[in-house]
Every structure is written in structure tokens, then in C-alpha cells.
Amino acid sequence: MAECGRIMALGLGFYQSSFTNFNTQIPLAIPWNKKPTRRRALTGPLASTVVEEKEKTATKPPPPKLKVEYLGKIVPVLKEEFKYANLLQVPKVEKVVVNCGIGEAAQNAKSLEAAIRELSLLTGQRPVKTRAKKAIAGFKLREGVPVGLAVTLRGNIMYNFLDRLINLGLPRTRDFQGVNPNSFDGHGNYNIGVREQSVFPEIQSDSIGSTRGMDICITTTAKTDSEAQKLLSLMGMPFREGVAPVVVRKKKRRVNPKDFKGRYRK
């Protein structure tokens, strides 16, 4: 028994010594008595520099052609002609609002979705529904029923839409002779009416369910109509020539008979 115990002790000592020598000569990738550590997210200034490098490497789309032309050519011309003291006084296009009536399509879900899809293709932005504010029995109209679509364009999408409207949409209009220069509202804003949505190349004539017109309101920062007209004409808006300006007449004041009620009494 003593001999067997001595042999077992020698074997156990040899096993432990060989395991320790093997571990010291070839260390394990993850020690058996330690848990693997997780990578922590970068914080502080190092994280901001990494984000900036990613943004620089990302490809950005080129700016709209009309915007580049406005900043490079139109702004100096307007500043010299109207004698602006500061570049911030030069008028610019602030936003473009496109309205479209849907008519009977409000009662049909498929026609309403088709109208939304068409206006989204034209403007590059999904429109919102405009609803009736009150019920009108003569038109079979209830309060809250969608009666039209509207979309407000700003920034690069606005410049792209104006470029396609001026160079592609308006010239394709039937019997087009130019837009009316008297459609300004007196505050530098201009309104255009388009009878058919098929004048834009994005809409195919075969896929049109029903013809819909639209109203386009171009809002500028100009203080007068003459400044706004000059801005839009430099952008390429084809104004009709030979149209006489509209004479704005003052409204006559309505006489209230109560003012003369006791004037001639004795």
C-alpha cells in the first residue's frame, strides 16, 4: 500500500509540473480564471473626431444648379441694381407651396393614394391632406373630409422643383405664351396655376387617372413686387411681354346712414 501511495504522489506531482510548464511556455489567449472584457464605446473628443472623419469621407450630392447660379450670378446683379447695403438685404426665394384639389378622389381610397403618389413624384416630398373646416350641404361636404393636398418645399428640394418647373414644366404647357406678370400679391409673392400635372416629365400620360390642376405659390423675401419680379426673371421665369400693369384702385368707403341721422336736426 505504501508503494502504491508513493507512485500516485509522484504521478500527481508530474502532472501539475507539466501543466504549469506548458502554460508558461505557451500562454493561453484567455486565462481560465479571468472573464473576457467588452469593448467600450468611444467618448469625448476622440469620438467626435471619428464622426467628423466619417462625415468627410461620405459622398454628398452636388448643390442644385439653380442655387449655384443664384449665389454666383443673381445676387451681385440684384445688389448692384437696387443698391443694397448688405448681402442679407438681397431678396431670395424662401419657400414654395404647392396645392392640389382632389375633388371626387376624396371618396375613393385608391384615387386619393394615386393623387398623393403623383404629387410626391412632382415635388420630391410627401404632401399632407387639407381637410374641410365646415360642412356644406350643397357640395355634399362634411367637416373633416380631405378636400386637397398641400406640400411646402424649402432648401435644395425647392430649388430642384423650381428648376424643373421653369425649364421643363412651363414650356410643355399647351399654347404657352409666358406667365402673367400681374400675379403678384403686392408683398413680393407670386402665384402660378398649372392646369394639368402631365406637363412634368415625371408623370406619364398613360398612367394618369384623372387630370388635376395645381396652384404654386412662390414666397420671396422681397419687399416690393418689382424686386420679386426681377429675382424670378433672373432665375429664368418666362414672364409674358406687353402686358399692362394692373392699376390698383382704392375702394370707396361705404357711407353709414347712421352718421347723418341727427346732423340736420334743430
UniProtKB/TrEMBL annotation:
Pfam families: Ribosomal_L5, Ribosomal_L5_C. Residues 146-239 form the Large ribosomal subunit protein uL5 C-terminal domain. The keyword Repeat does not apply. The keyword Membrane does not apply. Residues 86-142 form the Large ribosomal subunit protein uL5 N-terminal domain. One of its GO terms (biological process) is translation. Keywords: Ribonucleoprotein, Ribosomal protein. GO terms for molecular function: structural constituent of ribosome. GO terms for cellular component: ribonucleoprotein complex; ribosome. It comes from the Eukaryota. Belongs to the universal ribosomal protein uL5 family. This is Large ribosomal subunit protein uL5c. It comes from Picea sitchensis (Sitka spruce). The lineage of its organism: Eukaryota, Viridiplantae, Streptophyta, Embryophyta, Tracheophyta.
